[in-house]
Prior knowledge:
The chain has helices spanning 15-30, 66-74, 76-84; strands at residues 3-9, 38-43, 57-63, 93-99. It is of the alpha+beta class.
Amino acid sequence: MVIRLLVLYGHPEDPAAFDKYYDEAHIPIAKKMKGLRKWSVGKVVGTPDGSPPQYYYVADLYMESREEFERMLASPEGQAAVADVPNYATGGVTFVYTEVEDVVS
């Protein structure tokens, strides 16, 4: 079963600075990690009920197993990417693993 690492970023102190740093600095660092099956990112644009969203930005990273994730994150490239997070995630960040099951294709 495919495993997803869901990265949920809280609202940063300076959204423009977050966006610039994430795009120009963090993505190039994180792209050096080997073995990702898929990686997607997105800015949270709202909630179904119109309430303020809890998160500002979301990243979805996919691999074949949690063990592969753990090896990747323990690599020098993975450690560099994780160490970079405090440089821009001023609103906090939550990491969760999920099992992915496609329901509709």
